[in-house]
Amino acid sequence: MDREHAVAGLTADDIASIWRIPKGTIYRYAHKHRWRRYTEGVRTYYHPNDVTAVLDDLTR
Predict the structure, then answer these.
(1) CATH code of residue 45
(2) What is the pLDDT of residues 32-44, one digit of tens each?
(3) Residue span of the structural domain in which 7 resides
(4) CA distance 14 to 38
(5) By the number of CB atoms within 10 A of the CB, which of 13, 31, 39, 55 ranks highest?
(6) Which pTM was predicted?
(7) 8-42 burial: b if 16+ Cβ within 10 Å, else e
(8) In terms of Cα–Cα distance, which of 22, 12, 19 is closest to 42?
(9) What is the tally of structural domains in the chain?
(10) pLDDT digits over 19-35, tens only?
């Protein structure tokens, strides 16, 4: 993947900071809801649309 895609994705740290949830919960949601993801180097990036669809629904 090129660098542009990495900027568009969200890391587990990003998600934990924004939604204030533990990283373990993020990994569980990612698996359960089959979030699209890709890795670049050692970092995993989650597709922002998948993340917000699940987490916004849960906070309503």
Answers:
(1) 1.10.1660
(2) 999 999 999 999 9
(3) 3-59
(4) 15
(5) 55
(6) 0.81
(7) ebbebeebbeebebeeeebeebbeeeebeeeeeee
(8) 12
(9) 1
(10) 999 999 999 999 999 99
